[in-house]
Specification:
The protein contains 12 helices and 13 strands. The chain is α/β, with parallel strands linked by helices and 334 residues long. The strands form 3 sheets. Strands 3-4-7-8-9-10-12-13 form an 8-stranded parallel beta barrel, surrounded by 5 helices. The chain has a 3-stranded antiparallel beta sheet with strand order 5-6-11, with no helix packed on it. Helix 8 crosses helix 9 and helix 10 crosses helix 12. Bound molecules: flavin mononucleotide. The site of flavin mononucleotide has 28 residues, from strand 4, strand 6, strand 11 and helix 11.
């Protein structure tokens, strides 16, 4: 069916198409459409355990699709084993000026420079409070700092978000890897990451409910930087790593949008994301689970990541090109 819908969606500006599908899925949270979607996209059970949680299958929705948590019920009908909402920032912010998302059709890719637009934590709390009771896939929440919070004060943004969302999410992801918030990726450097994660770990000890904490990394770290980051993540007692976010390396693309600034996702990210997964798995030696994301466009890609040692996988750009049926297709193939 997506074969019929895709040409229509691709006639719209990417952000308009995104907005439209999100609103449709919002309606898809209501009965009887929810039941119909569940029937259409039902995936077989392939349970996986990771960071103390049970996932009905290893395929999740990556952060950035439902930034404010407005369509979780509808999304939960599409067969995902987990859904990562966000990135949520403490206060609302508009993000970068439009256009800020570009479809690179010839490359099966997307470039985005959204810059965490969102309605802020209070709005997301309101939305998630109404779905939390009947959440069926595991619900993750991806946390980011506001654009106008200085890097030195970033920890307080993450701590406030952690305290706010701990009772509402099954896991939390510390996003220090989006390329569209100036300076954010510097938080992946050894000293800054150590200070940030130690502060988060300290505040976490005071929580009644302390969900697993993951850290989402960029694909553009050098070997030494990655080694440092993984070491700090292990030492600070975090529960997992999500690898990777989008890349700033845009060479070798064919589309006319290839020189747009922003983070690249989809097929051209595949090799980079796999290389990072391989290094992390080797360094972690099974101590901490890895969620692999970046360029997973078909069942073979997903299977390879799991064979390489990923505990879970996530998709985003693959859904834009293949449609929601991709989730079931992957799960069936495992
Ligand atoms: C339009 C768009 C918006 C995104 N927004 C976020 C975000 O807010 N937070 C985040 O951690 N990742 C965000 N991402 C990155 C994805 O979660 C994912 O890491 C990346 O796209 C690589 O996976 P893919 O190749 O399957 O798309 C975004 C990606 C896209 C395409």
């Amino acid at each position: 069916m997506y074969k019929l819908i895709r040409p229509l969606l691709f006639r719209l500006a990417p952000e308009t198409a995104h907005h439209l599908t999100l609103q449709l899925l919002r309606v898809g949270g209501l009965q009887p459409i929810h039941a119909l979607l569940r029937w259409m996209y039902l995936a077989p059970r392939k349970p996986v355990e990771a960071f103390g949680l049970t996932f009905k299958n290893p395929v999740g929705l990556a952060a950035g699709y439902d930034k404010d948590g407005i369509a979780v019920r509808g999304l939960s009908a599409l067969g995902f084993g987990h859904i990562e909402v966000g990135t949520v920032t403490p206060r609302p912010q508009p993000g970068n000026p439009k256009p800020r998302v570009f479809r690179l059709v010839e490359d099966e890719a997307v470039i985005n420079r959204m810059g965490f637009p969102g309605k802020g934590a209070e709005f997301a709390v309101h939305r998630l409070s109404s779905v939390a009771r009947h959440r069926s896939p595991v619900l993750g929440l991806n946390l980011g700092k506001n654009k106008d919070t200085p890097l030195e004060g970033a920890a307080s943004d993450y701590v406030v978000l952690m305290q706010t969302f701990s009772p509402l999410a099954d896991y939390l992801a510390v996003n220090v890897s989006s390329p569209n918030t100036v300076g954010l990726r510097r938080l992946q450097g050894r000293e800054m990451l150590e200070a940030l994660l130690n502060e988060i770990a300290l505040a976490r000890r005071t929580l009644h409910i302390a969900p697993p904490m993951l850290v989402k990394l960029a694909p553009d770290l050098s070997e030494d930087e990655l080694e440092d980051a993984v070491g700090v993540i292990l030492d600070s007692g975090m529960d997992g790593i999500i690898a990777t976010n989008t890349t700033l390396a845009c060479e070798g693309l064919r589309s006319k949008f290839s020189s747009e600034s922003g983070g690249l996702s989809g097929s051209p990210l595949r090799a980079r994301s796999e290389a990072v997964l391989e290094k992390i798995v080797r360094r972690m030696d099974g101590k901490v689970p890895v969620v692999s994301v970046g360029g997973i466009m078909n069942p073979e890609d997903a299977k390879r990541r799991l064979d390489m040692g990923a505990a879970l996988v996530q998709v985003y750009t693959g859904l834009i090109y293949r449609g929601p049926g991709l989730v079931r297709e992957i799960v069936r193939s495992l």
